[in-house]
Amino acid sequence: MKLKYTTTRSNINQVTSSQAILNGLGDDGGLYLPINIPKISIDEINSMINLTYNQKAQIILSKYLTDFTQDELEYCINNAYNEKTFSSPKITPLHLLNDKCGVLELYHGPTSAFKDVALQILPYLLTTSAKKNGDKRTYVILVATSGDTGKAALEGFKDVPNTKILVFYPNDGVSLVQKLQMVTQLGENIKVVAVEGNFDDTQNGVKELFSNTDITKKLGNINHTFSSANSINWGRLVPQIVYYFESYVQLLNSGTIKIGEKINFTVPTGNFGNILAGYYAKEMGLPIKKLICAANANDVLKKFFDTGIYNRNREFVKTLSPSMDILISSNLERLLFLLSEGNKELITKLMLDLKNMGYYQIPEDIFKKLTTIFYSESADDIDTIKTIRDLYQKNNYLVDTHTAVAYKVYEKYQLKTNDNTFNVIVSTASPYKFNGAVAKAILSNYSKLDDIEQLKAINELTHSPIPEGLKNLDSKVVRFKDVISSNEMELTLKDYLKI
Ligand SMILES: *Cc1c(COP(=O)(O)O)cnc(C)c1O
User: How far apart (Å, rounded) are the C-alpha atoms in residues 438 and 15?
Assistant: First the structure.
């Protein structure tokens, strides 16, 4: 039986999983999801004990991507997760802090952030989907990035047949490490360009390119089409379900928990993709008690989980955990769809309220369901620095700023509830990726050091290895030097594609 996909907003034609991945966003503006959630039994989970990450991924993905053959899935999975792309043989290893808490490290991919787990496989899912549907076009991935996504997308799409990728980043809007990561990127099918101004200018420019009919026509003439790599694509969400199972099985393997025992996850949240994957795992049958949603000073989600009102009419705060600095969490739309049992009229109305008024309120019964499963707290920058320092000094364990927010939120949750359930902190970035704040937390002379010196000093103090992709960044060849103004983006694209 093939699992069908629908969108959160209307009853347009149902599609297959490969079509959902190719389409990205529904024509009605809604997000694709499967019409029901596949189940997994406790026995099936128990039988994963001796399987590799890739074998587990095969089991989980084949339940969702039902129009892919087993061979196609294996091809996608093995190209995404291997010893060349991930520095840990477990792909997402779990580090035990004590007998009640572990840290699931999702940052061992090529760019040292958790987005690699999805963006290493997305290009293969996309190109396989195209092939299955007889689509022979070349996919042009356009990205506007404020840092992490651009690099992860470049690493994912580099040299993938039938794709080209063009990344624009704001010249003043990314850290030195992030910039060096992008401008030294290898691959024949890529281009990276700095745009004068801030992230909004870059993002608006990319949006205009997407909707420029002259360009889409010219692309059509050379058998090319646009696509995007952002987190509303089902092909980015579904690979994230796997590591919730992976962590559970690692805990079984180490004897930390017994089969069937429920555990909690605390997830540093921005666009709500990661934690939503956890909800899918729970609904499939993974024994999860609570999903704890960690927010930083941009605590829109915490307020939503407290009141049932989602309100984006507020100040945007720049924090030390920038990947969580977000006022609209797009993937929440999928959760509301699931909790309302597919009430599309309701979802359409809520999203319209958000667009027109900047806020919406969910009905009481949905709010009740929400709060039996989810809990949310926030932690600010002072908490963040202090938590990095404490974890390093007390546990000899180094975390990045996003993971520190999650750890602090877990502590607050425990204080408030006395819930002693085993907790997994989902760790989304290497501490070396957010070197400035980590240096401030643990080095006395941090302010005298530039970014590259900070990496070396953190390494000398902690002996925690610098990830391969961040090593010797200052001595790599800079391939991309163009800095353009935002009104030159169209010309740059046409030049690159020779249209
Ligand atoms: C993207 C990102 C997040 C937020 O994840 P969502 O799936 O958007 O909630 C958290 N931490 C880091 C380091 C990220 O790059």
Answer: 45
Cβ of residue 149 lying under 6 Å from some atom of ligand 1? no
- Please write the tens of the pLDDT for every residue from 92-142: 999 999 999 999 999 999 999 999 999 999 999 999 999 999 999 999 999
Beta bridge partners of 423: 101, 264
Q: What is the value of pTM for the model shown?
A: 0.94
C-alpha distances out from residue 263 to 39, 126, 293, 396, 466, Å: 18, 33, 15, 24, 31
- Index of the ligand 1 atom closest to the CA of residue 434: 13
Which phi and psi (to 5°) does residue 237 adopt? -80, -45
What is the residue extent of each domain of the chain? 1-114+234-470
Burial of 66 (0-12, 13-18, 19+ CB in 10 A): middle
pLDDT tens-place string over residues 171-187 = 877 888 889 999 999 99
Among 3.90.550.10, 3.40.50.1860, 3.40.50.1100, 3.40.630.10, what is the CATH number of 1-114+234-470?
Answer: 3.40.50.1100
Contact 413, 377 (CB under 8 A): yes
Please choose, from the candidates 280, 249, 263, the residue with its C-alpha nearest in 3D space to the C-alpha of residue 61: 280
Instruction: Mark whether 115 is an active-site residue.
Output: yes
For residue 244, how many other CB atoms are within 10 A of its CB? Answer: 28
Tokens of 251: 């805990």
Radius of gyration for the alpha carbons in the chain, expressed in angstroms and rounded? 22
Candidates 39, 56, 115, 262; catalytic one: 115
Instruction: State whether the beta carbon of 269 lies less than 6 angstroms from ligand 1.
Output: yes
Q: Are 469 and 180 in contact (CB under 8 A)?
A: no
Nearest to 101 by CA among 481, 409, 498, 460: 409
Place of tokens 């496989």: 121
For helices 451-462 and 435-442, give the axis angle rounded to 10 degrees: 50
Closest CA to 120 of 95, 144, 87, 168: 87
For position 210, what pLDDT does the model report? 86
